[in-house]
């Protein structure tokens, strides 16, 4: 069971944009990592774009499950995991991350923010903390 990506996005008008993201592409071939990361960013934006405000969904994309939560205020989160990762845990993580993000980052910054301008450092820690490590022999 693995988590590959955790993203915070803003569903604005007219389009969705990425505010902050963390990725774990360590299981992929070195030469594939940047394209896998681009695929995850693109997929996250597309899923948020197609989701209604106030909705939660799990979408299968290739061998991944993308869990999306779009709040009524336009703040959205996406977790990309493998098929075995528990859906309930993904939505618990998204609730926690979006609540914390909205407390730490002013709502004024959401429509114009980008990964370079938004100061929120907790995503990498959450991605690591919620990663299920295989047991060692």
From TrEMBL:
Q: Which GO terms describe its biological process?
A: endoplasmic reticulum to Golgi vesicle-mediated transport; protein transport
CDD domains referenced in this protein's UniProt entry, alphabetically: Longin
GO cellular component, alphabetical, reads: Golgi apparatus
Which keywords appear in this protein's UniProt record, sorted alphabetically?
Answer: Lipoprotein, Membrane, Methylation, Palmitate, Prenylation, Protein transport, Transport
**Xref: PROSITE patterns:** LONGIN
Name one matching Pfam family. Longin
Q: Where is the Longin domain?
A: 8-127
Put simply, this protein is called YKT6B protein
Gene it is expressed from: Ykt6b
């Amino acid at each position: 069971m693995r988590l590959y990506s955790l993203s915070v996005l803003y569903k604005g008008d007219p389009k969705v944009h990425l505010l902050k993201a963390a990725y774990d592409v360590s299981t992929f071939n070195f030469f594939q990592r940047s394209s896998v990361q681009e695929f995850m960013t693109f997929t996250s934006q597309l899923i948020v774009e197609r989701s209604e405000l106030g909705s939660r969904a799990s979408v299968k994309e290739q061998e991944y499950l993308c869990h999306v939560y779009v709040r009524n205020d336009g703040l959205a989160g996406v977790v990309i995991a493998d098929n075995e990762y528990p859906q309930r845990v993904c939505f618990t993580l998204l609730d926690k991350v979006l609540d914390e993000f909205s407390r730490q980052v002013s709502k004024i910054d959401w429509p114009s923010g980008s990964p370079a301008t938004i100061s929120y450092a907790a995503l990498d820690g959450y991605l690591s903390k919620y990663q299920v490590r295989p047991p060692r022999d």
